Amino acid sequence: MPETKECPLCGGTMKYRITQSTVHVPGNPNASKPTTREWVCPDCDYYEEAEEEGT
Fold first, then answer.
1. Four-CA torsion 24, 29, 32, 33, nearest 10 degrees
2. What is the DSSP string of 1-55?
3. Residues 6+ apart with CB under 8 A from 46
4. Going by C-beta distance under 8 Å and a sequence separation of 6 or more, which residues neighbour residue 49?
5. CA quadruple 25, 34, 22, 42: dihedral positive or negative?
6. From CA 13, how far away is CA 5, in angstroms rounded?
7. How far apart are CA 50 and CA 55, in angstroms?
8. Share of the chain above pLDDT 70, in %
9. How many Cα atoms sit within 13 Å of 45 on the Cβ side?
10. Beta bridge partners of 4
11. How far, in Å, CA of 22 to CA of 29, rounded?
12. Are 36 and 52 in contact (CB under 8 A)?
């Protein structure tokens, strides 16, 4: 997957970002860690979810 692509709103350079957060659910001793993959434009704060690579 390319590391950058063009922003459809401002024409700036979007960057690929992977974020992993920790979610604690009451009553569940194990915290879940969902992963979010998205394209983010630092110039205009536009973002979109990245498409999954098919295998």
1. 80
2. --SEEE-TTT--EEEEEEEE--B--TT-SSPB--EEEEEE-TTT--EEEPPPPP-
3. 7, 8, 9, 10, 14, 40
4. 36, 37, 38, 39
5. negative
6. 6
7. 15
8. 91
9. 0
10. 15
11. 13
12. no
Q: Which two tokens stand for residue 10?
A: 């401002």
What is the torsional sign of CA 33, 36, 37, 41? negative
What is the chain's length?
Answer: 55
pLDDT value, residue 53 = 63
d(CA 50, CA 30): 27
- What's the pLDDT tens digit per position in 15-51? 999 999 999 999 999 999 999 999 999 999 899 999 8
Strands 13-20 and 4-6: antiparallel
